[in-house]
Amino acid sequence: MARTTPHQHVHTRRTLTDGEPLYRRVASELLGELRTGTVPPGERLPGERQLAEHFGVSRETVRQALQLLRREGLVATDRRGSHAALPGAPVEAPAAAGFPLGARQPGRDPVARATVAWEAPPPGHAEPLGLAPGRPTLVHRYWSASPGGREQRTAVTSFSAVALAEVEELARYRDRADGTGAAELRRTYDWMRRAGLSLHHRDTITRIEGTPSVRVTRRVHDQHARPLELTELVMDAQQDVLVYEFMVPAAV
């Protein structure tokens, strides 16, 4: 949720106290914030206590407002809490939080697609991520081509059990990761930082013999040296330019 100043709280409380029932006005205000992308689709809402403080009302009023939005299919609740259920793609992250590695291509308009699957990771991914051989995990695949159809980049990312346990937005993909639907994981690094993780990247670039392509292997771990992600990107070094962007420590 957007942070509010004391002045904003006073304004919210004043506008919520006249006219229709209080919980309906809270539901309307919350729906407005969901529609403007303050909380992108699929992301967890703040807890009842935080929402009550945000709108200057009681927790019971917040419960009634959430119940109304659930009945209308605008908010969904599972064991992890409530989250926005509005249609549409999540709001874009700031430019510095691009995922996967190599997905952003400045000055170009590539054709791209991405999917996620719950499956055993590719060869060479399990051990660095601390996964037992054959153990399934969330695997993200990315492909891009020039507007003319020339393949430019392919990337496959495997996530560790630590990443799925610590980052709720990633964990939600397990039940819908069938390898066919579009994947909206562009804010992955932002989600990790919001979960309190500092991201440490180690990128290795090697030439692929007999081809104009290079392979970039990225390993990401947190401030406790726990592995989070392993990405392998293959790109045409003659046709493309790799731009590195480094993240700041965990958000507070």
From TrEMBL:
SMART domains associated with the record: HTH_GNTR (SM00345)
Keyword entries, A-Z: DNA-binding, Transcription, Transcription regulation
Pfam family, one: GntR
Residue ranges of every copy of the HTH gntR-type domain listed in the record: 20-94
Domain of life: Bacteria
Protein name listed in UniProt: GntR family transcriptional regulator
